[in-house]
Amino acid sequence: MRYCREEAPSDRSVAFAGYDLSSSGRLPLMREDYGSGSRIATDYEPFDGAKERTRLWVRMLVQTADEVVMDVGGVHAPVANALRRIMLVEVPTMAVEYVTVHRNSSILHDEQLAHRLGLVPVLADARAFAERPPGSAAATARDTLRFRLRVEAPSETTSTPNGGRAQSTAVYSDQIEWVPLDAAPQPAARPRLMPGILLAKLAPGQAIDLEMDAVKGYGQEHAKWSPVATAAYRMAPRVQITRDIIGEQAQRLVRLCPMHVFDIEDGTGRAVVRRERDCTRCEECVRVVRAPVIDTADDIEEDEGEGEEEAMPPEDAADTDASFARSIRLGHDPEHFIFSVESTGQYRADVIFLEALHILKHKCVRLLQEIQRRPEEEGFG
Amino acid sequence: MADDNLPDRFEAVVLPEGVRKLRYEPDTKVEHCGTFYIEREDHTLANLIRAQLLRDDNVLFAAYRVPHPLEHLVVLRVQTRSARYTPLEAFCAALAALKNEAHVLEDELASEVQRWAAVRQTATSATAGAAVGAPPAAPR
Ligand code: SF4
């Protein structure tokens, strides 16, 4: 069996942990993929790019190197979910997979150390690499990044500045060095592992000497290949005030909401929705507070010692002190998703999202091509 | 060895030699109905296609299942309303629609990235990066 994902998603140029719009490898649209003579193509509703473009929209609200928050509108929940799942486990990255331990006298077992190394993000663009066949196949610069870690703690006899007592030595991922595999031209930026990660601590005299190969993989195989720390979405909340809330009540509402969604309009003193996005739908604002039942009859039953019950205001009553349930409508927009994506360092966060879209597109194209390739064959009646 | 029957990790990803990515079998008993077998795919794509098919007015039935958690295969059954529109055509239409959607979203995001880059540039040239991180004005 060949260890190679048959749907290698790109033929793009190499951009080292970077981002190049021109290399996003766009595919022609459906209409161009299939000649008009195709039986399948003729039955499609013509793709209306302009219409789709008004329906679908993306707005980025936070963009840093390792985090994006963006609004994606016009898509349905399955699309949002597919994108989330692809970001988690189907965007390839490089990660340490093979570790050759030459020497390890540290307290960490070889396996444990290897596992730790596997989880350190490798700062390289996996899209520029091919998959490495498993087992004995020799590593090449096309599919492998080789690194070496060699540290030795000074022995006990070495005098230390602070009065003789030998200290433990911390080993950080910064100490890992890249080893060029063959005579390939060296890239401008040297591949490296995410710096600043503590790998082990050495007692005086202990040493670690090992070599590791980072290869391309997918989160589906092991979480160390997942490019994201978080890839999550939520539906955009909708908060509506359906009946005016003014004065004292408005002020109470403003205080009630833990996310400070409401504000008071200057002049009118009316409560308005100011920060709708911040709403967590905790429902505090529409919670019906259990008000003590006013006992008028002496012979009222002592409900197992419970002296109160839920007091729901009558349908047409104005809000009581207890609740704004009749003046506020809470909901969400089922076609507006707020994504937040945090990168683990291999890619810029927005590149991960873009890559997920690209992979999704390729999945569809792959199946369409499969049908187009042999529509007449048996099994495709 | 204890892990003798442990499936290879890459099984979820790699299409074995000689296995078709996609198979379609028309149903022999029910009219304009058929089953798709998609190899090396999971809920990510299957649920997406199913939902897209159900948005199609000419599709009467669409559902999928994963026969076994260790077999990386999804089975999708589709029935359309008339013989003029076969399940295969519905399937293709759904895929095409999804592909276009991803394509448009990709474009939208790319232009959004460019918009941010422009905002950054003006911010850095004006106030040496003071405004970086602030969201740019909404386009709509
Ligand atoms: S549900 Fe109500 S109280 Fe809770 S965050 Fe939203 S607006 Fe505020």
Automatic annotation (TrEMBL), chain A:
Its main location: nucleus. CDD domains: RNAP_I_II_AC40. This is DNA-directed RNA polymerases I and III subunit RPAC1. It holds the Pfam family RNA_pol_L. One of its GO terms (cellular component) is RNA polymerase III complex. InterPro entries: 4Fe4S_Fe-S-bd, DNA-dir_RNA_pol_30-40kDasu_CS, DNA-dir_RNA_pol_insert, DNA-dir_RNA_pol_RpoA/D/Rpb3, RBP11-like, RNAP_Rpo3/Rpb3/RPAC1, RNAPI/III_AC40, RNApol_insert_sf. GO terms for molecular function: DNA binding; DNA-directed RNA polymerase activity; protein dimerization activity. It comes from Cyanidium caldarium. Belongs to the archaeal Rpo3/eukaryotic RPB3 RNA polymerase subunit family. Residues 297-321 are annotated as: Disordered. PANTHER family: DNA-DIRECTED RNA POLYMERASE, DNA-DIRECTED RNA POLYMERASES I AND III SUBUNIT RPAC1. SUPFAM superfamilies: Insert subdomain of RNA polymerase alpha subunit (SSF56553), RBP11-like subunits of RNA polymerase (SSF55257). Coiled coil: none annotated. GO terms for biological process: DNA-templated transcription. Residues 269-299 form the 4Fe-4S ferredoxin-type domain. Residues 297-319 have a biased composition (Acidic residues). Keywords: DNA-directed RNA polymerase, Nucleus, Transcription. The keyword 4Fe-4S does not apply. It is found in: Nucleus.
From TrEMBL, chain B:
Belongs to the archaeal Rpo11/eukaryotic RPB11/RPC19 RNA polymerase subunit family. SUPFAM superfamilies: RBP11-like subunits of RNA polymerase (SSF55257). Gene3D superfamilies: RNA polymerase, RBP11-like subunit. It is found in: Nucleus. It comes from the Eukaryota. One of its GO terms (molecular function) is DNA-directed RNA polymerase activity. It holds the Pfam family RNA_pol_L_2. This is DNA-directed RNA polymerase RBP11-like dimerisation domain-containing protein. GO terms for cellular component: RNA polymerase II, core complex. Transmembrane segments: none annotated. The keyword Transcription applies. It comes from Cyanidium caldarium. Keywords: Coiled coil, DNA-directed RNA polymerase, Nucleus, Transcription. PANTHER family: DNA-DIRECTED RNA POLYMERASE I,II,III (PTHR13946), DNA-DIRECTED RNA POLYMERASE II SUBUNIT RPB11 (PTHR13946:SF16). Signal peptide: none annotated.
